[in-house]
From TrEMBL:
Alphabetized UniProt keyword annotations: Signal
Domain GerMN: 198-289
SMART domains, alphabetized: Germane
UniProt organism field: Psychromicrobium lacuslunae
UniProt-recorded name of the protein: GerMN domain-containing protein
Signal peptide: 1-16
InterPro entries, per database record: GerMN (IPR019606), LpqB_C (IPR018910), LpqB_N (IPR059026)
Chain segments annotated as transmembrane: none
Amino acid sequence: MIAVLTLLVLALAGCAGIPTGGAVGQVQNSPSSGSDNLNIGYSEQPPAPDADQRGIVVGFLNAATGVGNNFQVARKYLTSAAEASWKSGQRTVVYSESPEIVTSGNSGAVSANLKVQSIVDSTGVRTPSAPGAVESLKFNLVKVAGEWRIDSLPDGIALATNLFTDLFKHYALYFYDPGFSYLVPDVRWLPGKGDSVAISIVKALLDGPANYLRGAVASAFPDSIRLESPTVPIENSIATVDISAKPLLDASPSTKLQMQTQLLATLQGGLNTVTGVRMRAGSDQIVLGSDPQPADKLKPPAVSGRLIGISNNDLAYLDGNVIGPIAGVASVAQLEPSNPAQSYRLFADGGAVAFLNATGSSLYTIAPGQTVVKPVSATKLSTPSFSPSNWVWTAAGDGSGNVYASHPGGQGTNQNPVVVLNIDWLKGRTVNSFRISRDGTRALVVSTANGQSRVQLTGILRQDTTAESAPRDLTDPSTIYLSNTAISEGYWAGESSFVLYAPGAKEVTPIDVELTQDGAQMPTLTGLQQLSVGNSITELYALDAKGTLYKSSAGSWAELPTKGISDLAFAG
């Protein structure tokens, strides 16, 4: 049996329009004049004369493709009161298969039952739905001048999968870590094509980060700043952005440069037609003293190819195919180490290492000039994960909601500080994996409850903006993946890319989950027990049940001659 994690992606087949035939619930017996012409996809049509209740709801749902014209056709299906109150941009329900339309005689009540794949909120943040999820959209219809019209309806629109992926595209908005050292992506799904896309991107950027990143990332743009022009023209690959004059003119030269860098990184990444950005305060161009910093200079540094692992029941490095001791670290074999982690700096260069004991109930850390310290004891701790600022994190898997952060070596006079965070949204859940992003602002959390696995992103709130500031809380998370299959580990494989898997005795297929594009299954490996992921999904090591080590190569696994090392981990 192949243990495959089923990915909720937006590439599943959907219908272009909603058929008017097929099984439904209780349907009116009266004829539906014009209903047979409502399976129209992109051909938005106004209400057909004498259409029945079902035909009106089907026609309205089919007209939800009018994202570029403010749903002018869809609004014709509404009463004037419903049109005035309907908030079309509140959310987008993405569904597969044809909806089941259920009417209830002549009462005016109609339901559209949808098999939901995901929901995109008003800011463009997409959340996958649980496998098999169904949502019922409730409509109430009344007669206006003898014709049925929708008088009340839920806010937002519903789109079949293929229509959604055509009308909406993903874009990475870029913000900064609190110290303005790194750019941090915030992936959104936004509607529109051509010039309208640039407007949507800039407005979303100026509105600030998604809820799960608020407080964890920074923006060079103050909250009061707004886009002043209804367009963002692009001429000769230069985008012109008209921004509220006063906050822009009041900003310091360095802040203006940070604004331009943030705009350029966001527009360049989302639109391949943009190579530069011109900022204007009203109609006056802002002259910068120097060029904005290139986006690639603000990305976290790549991790080295040297991995930490366990060999002969002790900590060791794997460099190429050579296993060697960690210089400066005495033997810890008596502690039965497992699941080691290394900071971004090598130990010899002032870094630190961490590991669990064999039962996973104790976290140990070692810093230069110090003996082994046990900062955390708890039930079923997750594999340690370092942030760039040298804090090492782990989470309890006992349902307590406790997350721990320790700083090996200490900060000033504070030796080996430990912060305990009690996180409400993790209470009652088994945390299997807790890993910090390489920009230090986010954590990837894999947890299970009631047989369902949930993969989430949460922002890390700090005490202040200094590089080694202590954490103080986690934000309410954004869910990026749900599965009824167990997931044991999640790894960062880029700024918005993750690898998920669960070990197994037979064939195991890890999953590559991308926030900025559809996910994909990765090469299958029989008896996969452990994975380690470097800078991208092309840098993978795997260990099978026989202790054989593999490295990813050209879409498959290449067996390595190295023997006798396990629990491998890249920096972080």
